[in-house]
């Protein structure tokens, strides 16, 4: 058995592609002016702020610039950047309209894969490898992880035993934080969903 971890999952702020409703995947657009302002107004919940001020909060992010920049806006000075936290690779569908891609993937389950891209199951496997590696080592028990919707969906789907088929049992709201616990035995538990990122 390894140790328990608490992950506070945050999706990056907006880019021009977000506003246009395009699938970003592992493309790397920066935050838009709107996204910079959005992330600058976010604040962590009080318990996480206290851990941060005490130097007891871990920070990790996808190396894609929209996630790394959001982490820094939230207060991370040197977040751990790991490629396993990157968004799902949508292959030939990157850049396509989001509504179109979601319709193609509906009812696909864990194994549905865009041409040249990744399945949700493959995303979960790489993210779980990162989580398990952190749990096996020293360091903070609680981490803020600034990442992407595909990563967040995969972790929470595993925690609530959702098979990625419609209808989804829960809804992910924008500008929210979600908490997942990785137990010492490796199982994932959903702690909170759609916690507001308090604005100024």
Description:
The structure is a single chain. This protein is an alpha/beta fold. It is built from seven helices and eight strands; from the N terminus they run βααβαβαβααβαβββ. The protein has helices spanning 16-20, 33-41, 46-53, 65-74, 98-105, 120-136, 149-160; strands at 5-11, 42-43, 57-61, 80-81, 142-147, 176-182, 188-196, 198-199. The strands form two sheets. Strands 4-3-5-1-6-7 form a six-stranded mixed β-sheet. The protein has a two-stranded antiparallel sheet with strand order 2-8. Helix 4 (65-74) links the parallel strand 3 (57-61) and strand 4. Helix 6 (120-136) packs across helix 7 (149-160). The protein is globular, with a radius of gyration of 16 Å.
Distance between the termini: 41 Å
Shape: globular
Integer-rounded radius of gyration: 16 Å
- Following the backbone from N to C, one meets helices and strands in this order, namely EHHEHEHEHHEHEEE
Sheet with most strands: 6 strands, mixed
Number of alpha- plus pi-helical segments: 7
Instruction: Provide the β-strand percentage band.
Output: 15-25%
DSSP E strands, number: 8
Strand order of the largest sheet: 4-3-5-1-6-7
What proportion of the residues is helical, as a percent range? 25-40%
Structural class: alpha/beta
Mean pLDDT: 94
Which parts are unreliable, with pLDDT below 50 for 5 consecutive residues or more?
Answer: none
